Amino acid sequence: MGSNMAEAHPVGFQWVMEAKARGAEVFHIDPRFTRTSALADAHVPLRAGTDIAFLGGVINHILSNDLDFREYVVAYTNASFLVSEDYQDTEDLDGLFSGYDEAKAAYDPSTWHYESIRPAEGGGHGKETSASDQHGSGGPVLEGGSEEIAADPTLQHPRCVFQILKRHFARYTPEMVEATCGTPKELFQRVCDAWTRNSGRERTAALVYSVGWTQHSVGAQYIRAGSIIQLLLGNIGRPGGGVFALRGHASIQGSTDIPTLFNLLPGYLPMPTPDQATLAGYLDSVRGDKQKGFWRNADAYTVSLLKEYWGEKATPDNDFCFGYLPRINGDHGTYRTVMDMVDGKVSGYFLLGQNPAVGSAHGRLQRLGMANLDWLVVRDLTMIESATFWKDAPEIETGEIVPEQCRTEVFFFPAASHVEKEGTFTQTQRMLQWREKAVEPAGDQRSELWFFHHLGRLVRERLAGSEDERDRPVLDLTWDYAVHGDEPSAEDVLRRINGQDLTTGKELGGYLELKADGSTSCGCWIYSGVYADGVNQAARRKSRFEQDFYAHEWGWVWPMDRRVLYNRASADPQGRPWSERKALIWWDAGKGEWTGHDVPDFEKTKPPDHVPPPDAVGPAALRGDDPFIMQSDGKAWLFAPSGLADGPLPTHYEPHESPFRNPFYAQQGNPTRKVYGRRDNPSHPSPPEAGGEVFPFVFTAARLTEHHTAGGMSRTLPYLSELQPDLFVEVSPELAKLRGLAHLGWAHVVTARAAVEARVFVTDRMAPLRVQDRIVHQVWMPYHWGGSGLVSRDVVNDLFGVVLDPNVFIQESKVATCDVRPGRRPRGAELLALLAEYRARAGITPETGTRVATAHGTEHVEPGHATEDRP
């Protein structure tokens, strides 16, 4: 669900097919019938952007029919915990939770906390910081031990999480699923029956998603909804279960573990904010004095990271150089940065591993932003559109960019490909796999390590001798990586990431060895152990035919080479496998330790009946039956008492642009979504706003196997270009008839932002759906084309505007509204006139779409997202 796995992750999908050959049922829930659908037992259609309604229906089915794995739920989740009597649900507030502040369009989550547990000071989420800024991945700070949480193990108390969950999802009936998603009831029921039948003590089911879930204004809550189902059915921490986030080959998982994100440090530690002047103040915001679990050891993770950055310069006397870390004072995400470029607030930009002129939402805004820089550094394999926009962007034709007047100086650095450099990828299953260099890069192509190592060296040489305090963080960095010739050693970098005992110089065996006193260094605490015993564990390649199917000698999985996270949950509270057939780890009373097929994700010698003393904190406070060792209460969260910006439970909200009123609540869309009311970022009206009929169809975009993301690696290759030589738009026969479209003829898709022309592909793969007693048509396009390469076409991402999920600031680029017209699009000034005419007919102004609160008739334009009347 939210993934066309056969198309976008074909190597991984071979194992789905292997499972199917052995009897597994495969369901594909997707707006479009795809290559994955063709190989599944059933394709289940739904309207793009309505996944929570569907998943909420599954949750309601489980709870209404007592199909949950009750022993698992009572023992291992927070189902029994009582929530504050001040908490109010969407059922009480017509789509809002308690604590909503209209002036900020944000929640204060203090009423969501457990009864008798005092929430931390300042727990609210400002609109300019994402949830992960607050506590990292550790969840809320608890100012009281979890043993103090009031609970009802019978799950009957009206304020226990289980009953709140039942009430919240009670209206998500099969009839409402059908009316909202367009999914026929009989197909929805088939999914419910198969999912529950293949879950429980003896069986497990897996859930797979990808960017079809994440790229929404409620994307984090999609994943929460799927996780709730898997927890209710006992499918977390057990073999054959889990929630799989599919990752691409280019170390997408690794780039969030050791992040390229503005709001996180390595290992999901939050970036400090300006009010956190000291290390102690920072740590107080990350962990609670009395909380359970390993996240309380954030001091050891943080100090070890600072020691890796600044080495001998980082001492207890100077707070281990904590003051050197940058502070984040607002939204510094990619889309805010692009708008700041347009507004003249950014002078220079490094562009590596992406092609926003094609691959990011609102391509026109991306190109206009880059055209307003002083300088731009592009590192890529080929001369991508983001390097040549100044001379060949679509805006040249419309006169919005004039090459002779474009101020941006572009520096292009040829990059080495993944086969031309050594290093690790971190993949879907958290696995680090080492790759050797297969061939030498040609000409002056260089690796990322080479580029940044020498850039850092040159900057440090330029600053040498400086007495300016602002230069100290750079000059004091530890920058002594081993080099082979002039190429930095990727293996040495991996060794630094693993960490060392600074008293002996020996590589650490794992994060359990990290200390907060400055005696250990570690570049990313969750990766500690990947270089244990001085051996590159990621380079292991023992054949699967020579070991069991957990394959512990193939690569290395964070943390500690655990192949299944939270695997203590694979055994019952007494430490016995729930099922002998599904045995993973178990308590061996004779040896006094946890043993089994995997590395125990639990303290190895802590018995299952262990009850900690009242004053215990951190890992010592975990009971013997607390499997979720990173949570502050040791339990999995069906209800999130903090940590999410848009509510403790998933709730169906319509996409930012939708042709339908929310059938569940008066609150139309996510009331905390980030909107940007600007003339250069127009939104389409959605109910209750008027004018939405101008864009009557639902638009979505995705990938093809033959091309790769923005196309820079595939449109330059003749054999891939020949396989998919032209951009196309898939429409149903009914929509083709309605709009006069001819198969293989031309059409152009129109939004307020752009018009994109493509060949028409008339197909039943995009079947119309009946939603709220009327027919809705969905339109699909692949997004790989741009202006360069052997095959070139319009940029599909130009059709989307910028609206973001409030938790992780990801764009809603999987659903919008649109119109479709026959023939080729107009060019130049006529194109601008067409778009202006559409905006006028729809009544679009910079304020359209910025009124995010619609419950109880409230309308609100967010301060800080004020509309801006600029060209």
From TrEMBL:
Cellular component per GO, a single term: cell envelope
Gene3D superfamilies: 2.40.40.20, 3.40.50.740, Dimethylsulfoxide Reductase, domain 2 (3.40.228.10)
Keywords (A to Z) from UniProt: 4Fe-4S, Iron, Iron-sulfur, Metal-binding, Oxidoreductase
Primary location group: other
Region annotated Disordered, chain positions: 116-146, 852-871
Tree of life domain: Bacteria
Pfam families attached to this UniProt entry: Molybdopterin (PF00384), Molydop_binding (PF01568)
GO MF, one annotated term: oxidoreductase activity
InterPro entries documented for this protein: Asp_de-COase-like_dom_sf, Formate_DH_Act, MoPterin_dinucl-bd_dom, Mopterin_OxRdtase
Domain Molybdopterin oxidoreductase: 1-383
Domain Molybdopterin dinucleotide-binding: 697-806
Biased composition (Basic and acidic residues): 857-871
Cofactor requirement: [4Fe-4S] cluster
Family the entry assigns: Belongs to the prokaryotic molybdopterin-containing oxidoreductase family.
Protein name: Formate dehydrogenase alpha subunit, selenocysteine-containing protein
Source organism of this protein record: Amycolatopsis mediterranei (strain S699)
